[in-house]
Amino acid sequence: MRILRGLALVAVVAVFGAGACAFEPQRDEAGPGGSEPVNAADETGASAAPGPGRSASVGKAAPSPSRSPSAKPSPSATASASAKPKPKPKPSSTGCPQGERQRDVEKYLAQLGTFGPVTVDGSQSDADCAAIKKFQRRYGISPAAGRAGPTTADVARRLASTRTDQCRTGSGTTICVNLTLQTVWVMRDGKVVMEPTVTRTGMRGYATPTGTYRIGWKNRREWSDPYEVWMPYWQQFNGGIGFHETVSYLHDKSLGSHGCVNLLRRDAIRLWELGKVGTRVYVFGRRPGT
Q: Is residue 284 classed as helix, strand or coil in its secondary structure?
């Protein structure tokens, strides 16, 4: 018997290859721990079990096939050879981390009805994620990652609870300030012409006074002498108190202004457009903690 010499095979390895207002720090809506961790099993799927036609005892020698030239592969063997791997199931994650106030936020957004469809079931979905992100971007909540955290829930609750008919108006335009809910909106001849939005008013010791006032003067960029800050889109209505844009994070409830009504930029601009010298201002309620 002749002795055949074997040839060595070389394996190839593949390499796979970021007035005046009190200034406050920005807070993280993601909460402690940030985004929720991704479950590796959900992301990659479980390990594949041996498929049809695949030997479950890898490493054992298989019997030699018949040398008969007329032998044909069995149908089951042909099917096994041509079988394609099953596609991996899609991850269950929507791409938005679910927050501890998911159901509350869904309920309030459903009441507001202007941020897209939501399902009030306490479970994050693609539609919920999109609506929450849209809401967060609109009201300056950071980060706008779709997580239903306490800040998002609080802002949504205040807006959903605002009753525009509580504002005392007459003919013409009235700027309405609800100190209890920290919201602002504008009425004209009994109709809402600026939907309720969020505000930050005077902190403890500097509470914004209630009452009916008139816009006294306006300045696109007013300088505050006592506090040495710029107040964009300024509209004065009571002594040194007025409406203006805040250039700091609006949603830190532990802080407040020195009596002024602080607004997000887009809302300060819109209020500037609607307000005129002589426009009525109605302030009511009481900011919690003041």
A: strand
